[in-house]
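Supplementary Note 2. Why include the ligand at all?

Several targets in our set were suspected to adopt different conformations when bound, so apo predictions alone were not considered sufficient. For every target with a known small-molecule partner we therefore ran a joint prediction. The input for NDP is given below.
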Amino acid sequence: RVLIASLCVAYLAVKWYGPSFDAESLKGARVLVTGASTGIGEQMAYHYARFGAQIVITARREKVLQQVAEKCQSLGAQSAFYIAADMASVSDPDKVVDFALEKLGGLDYLVLNHIGPSPFSMWEGDVDHTRWLMQVNFFSYVQMAWKALASLEQSKGSLVIVSSLLGKMSSPFVAPYTSTKFALNGFFGALGHELAMKKSNVSISICTLGLIDTEAAMDKVKGVTKVPAYPATDAALNIIISGATRQTDLFYPWFTQVVTLSKDWFPSFTSYVIQNSYNYTP
Ligand code: NDP
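The joint prediction is reproduced in token form.
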């Protein structure tokens, strides 16, 4: 009990006395957001626009990106550029960072958020899909981070990694997806240590999200689970704030942190809850 009370006090102290968010700091900030044609990425683009940032957005669908960029301009972005790219390609991740550096003259925030589509089903041995998803959801992140690092170092910038509760805790029906998120947490956790040890200027924020009400996610879990979904626009704002305040970790909604603790402290109970939170008959 003493341990739990101490953890709660420490958590609340960090929440209350941690760095506060200054919206002005994002005015003119040079930001690259990936996976910004829809979902949380699109919402992040709109928030950055309202804060007066200079934005580059990317995803595969050019027409949709064009519409998002136009809306960003109307919401107050200092500038909004877009570039269509496929993160399954080996060359596109570098191409996107080069484009952003050229258009914005440097980067203050690199927000890595895209994911490739992946089925919500029992794993039936599709190794090729798992490998492909690793390229889209993981290797492209590593590649873009490395390409942008020198510029972020110069600007005392931030790398923001959008991850998931499923990057800390395995769950059925999403084996390839959950693997890519574990890989992100492992890699960027290690890189965060290395940057701190080198006294680098660059901060890394790893964002652990629970279920968020994007169209893609809702389509997958419809009728399968009763886990509550949280609003994409609020998730997007919390991600932006964690980058701007250089927090190393974000848990959104807050109880995702409790779930990760429960998995370590009460593994059998947590597995029971996970396996029984889906409608599934073999
Ligand atoms: P969406 O599926 O709504 O959006 C995915 C984005 O990635 C789209 O802009 C899509 O655009 C782009 N994309 C897909 N494939 C590629 C590709 N091959 N190359 C480049 N871009 C691609 O995702 P969400 O908004 O729901 O999720 C955003 C982030 O939040 C992800 O990292 C996800 O893991 C995380 N998250 C989401 C949760 C949720 O419940 N929604 C829960 C936990 C974490 P296009 O099709 O135009 O390429």
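Residues 35-41, 59-61, 64, 85-88, 113-116, 136, 162, 164, 209, 211-212, 214, 216-217 surround NDP (CB under 6 Å). DSSP finds ten helices and seven strands in the chain. Comparable summaries for the other entries are listed in the accompanying table.
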